[in-house]
Design goal:
Elements (H helix, E strand, L loop, with lengths): L1 H8 L4 H15 L3 H16 L3 H26 L3 H9 L4 H31 L11 H12 L2 H54 L1
Helix pairs in contact: 1-2, 1-4, 2-4, 3-4, 4-6, 5-6, 6-8, 7-8
Length: about 200
Amino acid sequence: IGLITGLCRLSPNPTLRGLAILYIELIRGTPLLVQIFIFYFFIGTVLNLDRIVAGVGALALFVGAYVAEIIRAGIQSIPRGQSEAARSLGMSATETMIYIVLPQAFKRVLPPLAGQFISLIKDSSLVSVIAITDLTKSGREIITSSFATFEIWFTVALLYLVVTSVLSQVLFWLERRFARSDQSQQAVQDFRGSGRSDGAGGG
């Protein structure tokens, strides 16, 4: 959702661009809890959706708006000259976006994407308000029977911390791997450039 909306946000088509802006501003300007209620009690009732589908759909639409802006910023950070060079080599606009722009943009937006997905894991606790069983709802049910309020909430917080920490480490590893790949490519280019300079000097 975020990728498609981000591309529509940059589209020269005014209709697609306007719809993307409307969706982004609508989602970013309203609380997630309100969106979950609307999705479950209105859209879910009309389309006869299960509460799990409604909860996942609300979270997907919510995070999609933020990811769209991250993707848009990443694409716009790529120098326009690279797209022009690709087009001059005969690549279509779609091929340029897929093979030239998006791979570079993904490397640049990985840190903010990581932060957004970690926030999504924590925000998922809000779906417990529509009776979806997650860590938060399970914690409430256990507290009702055991009355161990502090111990249960501390355990729930610890479990969320473990999940987000593991995800953070995975994304940090990916970021370092991409950085090493960029450094290796730059070293190869520098070596080739120095080789051509030496060859020209010797001639």
